[in-house]
Amino acid sequence: MLAATCVALITSAGAQDKQELETLLAQINDQIDKPMLTVATFTQHNHIKVLQAPLISTGEVFIDARTGVAWYVNQPLQSKLIINDRGIDTGQGLVSSSRTIARLLRALISGELSTLPALFTITGEKEGSQWTLLLTPKDPLLARRIQSLRLSGANSVAQLEVMQPTGNRIVIVFNEPSALTELPTRVYDDLYATVP
Questions:
Q1: Rounded mean pLDDT of the chain?
Q2: Residue 2 lies inside a defined structural domain of this protein
Q3: Per the domain annotation, does 1 fall within a domain?
Q4: Which of 37, 40, 53, 73 could cysteine-pair with 180, CB 3.0–4.6 Å?
């Protein structure tokens, strides 16, 4: 186990590094709280090269470990994404039937890290309870959309930054999540109406 004052910088390049990376990911995975039902609010900053100021939206995300993720943007315009093993649904039908993308989004939002090494080259840093992971896509098709991802947090994913090949980037800051005993009716209906 890493000492609280120790910083570990690890890449997934070599065999020894692979073992160190697996250890780091296991430590982070064990540290992240994963209740069956979770809610968190978020603020999303879309930095677009041609705009001087980022586009900002806020909302809330519900995670049901059995089913998927319900992502609701409340301001400035209302929208939703339901992410499960079928794909990504806006409530008006599937916009992406890619199970890989849906599983990736679920993993990133919920902090389920075990699927990430298959898709990304990873560097990681951990100091005390704070951790950061930098992910670079291995798949050329994914790399056309995502240049890199940076995840950071402590007991949960606190921030997700998406760098795009165009130079645009998205920064999502999550407020401290809370465990739920049950989902609100609208969230339950959204998640379970789209279960495969």
A1: 84
A2: no
A3: no
A4: 37
What DSSP string runs through 16-56? HHHHHHHHHHHHHHHHS---SEEEEEEEEEEE-TT-SS-EE
Q: Say whether pLDDT at 9 is over 50.
A: no
Residue 101: count other Cβ atoms within 10 Å of its Cβ.
15
Q: Total structural domains in the chain?
A: 1
* pLDDT tens track for 46-93: 999 999 999 999 999 999 988 889 999 999 999 998 888 777 887 777
* Beta bridge partners of residue 109, listed in sequence order: none
Tokens standing for 150? 């940076």
Angle at 9 between CA 140 and CA 141, to 5 degrees: 5
* Inter-residue contact 156 to 163 (CB < 8 Å): no
Residue 124 domain flag: yes
Per residue in 117-166, pLDDT (tens digit) is 888 999 999 999 999 999 999 988 888 888 999 999 999 899 999 999 99
Question: Of 68, 72, 79, which is closest to residue 37 (Cα–Cα)?
Answer: 68
User: What is the Cα gyration radius of the chain?
Assistant: 17
CA-CA distance, 147 to 162, in Å (whole number)? 8
**Which residue range is the domain that position 36 belongs to?**
7-193
- Report if residue 40 sits inside a domain: yes
47/72 Cα distance (integer angstroms): 20
Q: Looking at residue 2, what is its pLDDT?
A: 31
